[in-house]
Amino acid sequence: MKERNIILSLRSVSVAYDGYAALEGVDLDIYDDDFIGIIGPNGGGKSTLVKAIMGAVPYSGTITFADALRSGNHHRIGYMPQVSQFDTRFPISIEEVVLSGLQAEKGFMGRYREQDKAKAHALLAQMGISDLADRAIGEVSGGELQRALLCRAIIAEPRLLILDEPTNFVDNRFEHEFYRMVKQLSEMMAIVMVSHDLGTISSVVRSIVCVNRHVHRHNSNVLTEEQLLNYDCPIQILSHGNIPHTVLEHHTGDGCHHHK
Predict the structure, then answer these.
(1) Distance CA 222, CA 153 (A)
(2) Residues 113-156: pLDDT tens digits?
(3) Which terminus of the chain is less hemmed in, N or C, by CB atoms within 10 Å?
């Protein structure tokens, strides 16, 4: 059996906004073979956890990156933000979006080589949008931009891939294909995926982390109503197909219910 190695470790990590504790005393280890689904109520701290890992918000405590995640002066982490965080009025093409995933390696003044462009086009072809390479980001759909952002996140061959609500704007036809591709990627890198849809991601991820100011890791992709209650993770599960359907009753807690 392959030895599992910790590539990222959080200890006593807390984040506060204007005196409000968004995260408190988070302890979490991420392993090199992890495929984690992060769930929790709205305002529970899911995106804040990701931002802390990415160094985008100040925090107390320690976040330790293993050597496997280090490459020169940057970390080998691919990040796919929510499409809603992108300003689609910015004058940049789909190809340029993908190539920007190499910026940490090249620096702001670095030039892209022909092999970089060939790699970008190969990834776009995998996503079925190679014909959109020269289009401005404001001229494509949210789902098409989301596919380009996935290409951007993986073009530098990261060891850890973080996906923040990756299928919010993806059409139903592509959603199944998206999860198939992500599952393939999970054989090559660790993946952390934030989602509101436990019913769908539970068929893909290997473990689940519940975030509601505090963090609880569940080393399985199956969660019962009782476990969610014990983890103080008040979400509503809507599921499809053969996945069990569970709806949690309302109860008091730090967060509000989250409805799909």
Answers:
(1) 28
(2) 899 999 999 999 998 899 999 999 999 988 889 889 999 999 99
(3) N
Contact between residue 210 and residue 40 where contact means Cβ atoms under 8 Å apart: yes
Q: Among candidates 10, 62, 46, 20, which has minimal Cα distance to 212?
A: 46
pTM: 0.85
Chain centroid to CA 231: how far? 21
Domains and their CATH numbers in the chain: 1-76+160-260 (3.40.50.300), 91-157 (no CATH)
Only one residue has tokens 């309302």, namely: 250
28-84, pLDDT tens digit by residue? 999 999 999 999 998 899 999 999 999 999 999 999 999 999 877 789 999 998 877
Q: How far apart are CA 39 and CA 27, in angstroms?
A: 16
